[in-house]
Design goal:
Blueprint: H1 8-17, E1 32-34, E2 38-40, H2 49-65, E3 68-72, H3 78-92, H4 96-101, H5 104-107, E4 109-111, E5 126-131, H6 132-135, H7 145-172, H8 178-183, E6 190-196, E7 206-211, E8 217-222, E9 228-232, E10 235-239, E11 246-250, H9 252-257, E12 267-270, E13 277-284, E14 291-292, E15 304-305, H10 306-320, H11 335-342
Parallel strand pairs: 1-10, 2-3
Antiparallel strand pairs: 3-11, 4-5, 5-6, 6-13, 7-12, 8-11, 8-13, 9-10, 9-12, 14-15
Helix pairs in contact: 2-7, 3-7
């Protein structure tokens, strides 16, 4: 029998035994490969105002048309990225029994999909989901002392980049760039270290099931293996890996705040039969009591706090196995007008 670490195969097998035909994953066709909009962030610091404005416009346009883009000259050195990748690999090579019980990184280790009730809700992956407030805490690292220094530097660089991009996007909406600094704090921003083990049993198993992100924006470092897919023009497309670039995607909160100017797009990760995959995601989130309201009227969504949004997402996943997300917060009478705009948020999804 094929062994897996963590015991993903055991969990998936149990779900498969209790599923009906309609619960099983649907076959996925070969997807076309896409090249995300590529933006050189060095242009934001150009002495030429027209170049700065063109760069900002490209960021906002990609956030509206794609919900995804990639950036180069982003401020993270290849040396830092390489050290982070090396430390991440060592961390995930730790035997499952120790990862699961030794309290590493604020006891944030997760694997598979605990709430899954059928195979199509199952994610073949493991992760550490670490709040920024714990990145500095020496007690979180145990024997992985060299990981702490790299994590601190990496988290700081990702946070700086996230706030730079969010500032461009908020300024485009008519807010000041300082708005994000005022409402986002370290207690709700996260680094998520992901590992997708090779999955030789079925090409139909997701590494991470289709979902949207419940934040303002996400910045992703991924390796050369690839596997990220996103919904574009009502079809899944595969993102071509670019080792020199970081990927940025809009989250649900920016879609609501922008009144659907920016798009939080459904995406997933597919498994690889022979190769494992690593990635690191930074999630820019507001404080739990921050109010999220559309910046223009008439508003599509009712006002809500981040705490209210997270609680609703978690309740939906707990009771149904799926994230509903923004459609829960549509104002009465806007459903028909926005059905096509929010269709990407209604498919099955996990909490991010």
């Amino acid at each position: 029998m094929i062994q897996s670490d963590p015991p993903l195969l055991d969990h998936y097998g149990a779900l498969l035994c209790h599923s009906t035909q309609c619960d099983e994953p649907q076959s996925r066709l070969i997807m076309e490969e896409c090249q995300l909009p590529l933006i050189d962030l060095s242009d934001l610091s150009s002495r030429d105002e027209m170049i700065r404005q063109a760069c900002a416009a490209a960021i906002c346009r990609a956030s509206s048309e794609w919900g995804f883009f990639q950036v180069v000259n982003h401020g993270l050195s290849p040396q830092l990225v390489g050290k982070m990748r090396s430390e991440q690999v060592k961390l995930f090579q730790t035997p499952f029994e120790r990862k699961a019980i030794c309290g590493l990184l604020n006891n944030s280790y997760r694997w598979g999909s605990p709430t899954a009730t059928c195979p199509k809700q199952f994610s073949w992956s493991e992760a550490f989901h670490v709040p920024l407030t714990k990145v500095l805490d020496e007690a979180c690292y145990g024997e992985f002392t060299s990981l702490r220094e790299v994590m601190i530097e990496f988290a700081s660089a990702m946070s700086k980049l996230a706030r730079l991009l969010a500032g461009v996007l908020t300024e485009n909406l008519g807010y000041g760039k300082e708005v994000i600094d005022n409402i986002c704090d370290q207690s709700t921003c996260f680094l998520r270290l992901n590992h997708y083990p090779a999955c030789p049993i079925s090409p139909e198993i997701y590494g991470l099931v289709p979902h949207t992100d419940s934040d303002f924006l996400t910045i992703l470092f991924q390796d050369e293996v690839g596997g990220l897919q996103l919904m574009k023009d009502s079809k899944w497309v595969t993102v071509k890996p670019n080792q020199d670039a970081l990927i940025v995607n809009i989250g649900d909160l920016f879609q609501a705040w922008s009144n659907d100017v920016y798009k939080s797009v459904e995406h997933n990760v597919v498994t690889n039969a022979k190769m494992e995959r690593y990635s690191i995601a930074y999630f820019l989130c507001p404080s739990y009591d921050s109010s999220i309201g559309s910046f223009t009227e008439p508003s599509i969504y009712r006002k809500f706090t981040f705490r209210e949004y997270r609680d609703q997402v978690q309740e939906d996943v707990r009771t149904t196995g799926y994230k509903v997300g923004l459609p829960r917060f549509l104002l009465e009478g806007t459903e028909d007008l926005t059905r096509r705009k929010v269709s990407n948020t209604t498919s099955q999804a996990t909490v991010r």
